[in-house]
Amino acid sequence: MKKVAFIFTQGPHGSSAGREGLDALLATSALTEDIGVFFMADGVFQLMPAQQPEKILARNYIATFGVLPLYDVDQCFICTESLKARGLSAGHEWVLDVEPLSVAEIRDRLASYDVVMTF
């Protein structure tokens, strides 16, 4: 089986990239168990709890990254530099358990994947 990495770089609102990436991730989880999920840049906002998309009229977004463990997706990482640049910390409460990694550590991990998809 191929190792597949998903990188989320866009915020949850203003674009459907996060939702499309999550759909692809869930579909891929039926085919392989070796999946890594990386949240970088504005993608770290995908994991913020208590989002209220209706306040900005973003009715189509449903925050479901918290279901990843139900699909046996447990290799989830968040970029420490991205957090710092956005005034967040690795100790923040997220909708998903994530391991904080530096950009260099993420780069090293991504090198072991056969397929890398960015959303």
Walkthrough of the structure:
The structure is a single chain. With 119 residues, this protein is an alpha/beta fold. It has a single domain (4-118), classed as DsrEFH-like (Hypothetical Protein Ychn, Chain: A, 3-Layer(aba) Sandwich). The chain has three helices and five strands, in the order βαββαβαβ. It has a five-stranded parallel beta sheet with strand order 4-3-2-1-5. It starts with a strand and ends with a strand.
Annotate the secondary structure layout:
Blueprint: E1 4-8, H1 17-29, E2 35-39, E3 75-79, H2 80-85, E4 99-101, H3 103-110, E5 115-118
Parallel strand pairs: 1-2, 1-5, 2-3, 3-4
Function: Part of a sulfur-relay system required for 2-thiolation of 5-methylaminomethyl-2-thiouridine (mnm(5)s(2)U) at tRNA wobble positions.
Organism: Rahnella contaminans
GO molecular function: transferase activity
Distance between the termini: 22 Å
Strand content: 15-25%
Mean pLDDT: 88
Number of domains: 1
Amount of helix: 10-25%
- Known CATH architecture: 3-Layer(aba) Sandwich
Number of strands: 5
Radius of gyration based on Cα positions: 14 Å
Low-pLDDT windows of residues? none
CATH class placement: Alpha Beta
- The geometry reads as globular
CATH topology: Hypothetical Protein Ychn, Chain: A
* Major β-sheet profile: 5 strands, parallel
Structural class assignment = alpha/beta
So how many helices?
3
CATH superfamily: DsrEFH-like
Query: Spatial order of the strands in the main sheet?
Result: 4-3-2-1-5
Helix and strand run: EHEEHEHE
Family: Belongs to the DsrF/TusC family.
GO molecular function: transferase activity
GO cellular component, one term: cytoplasm
GO biological process, one term: tRNA processing
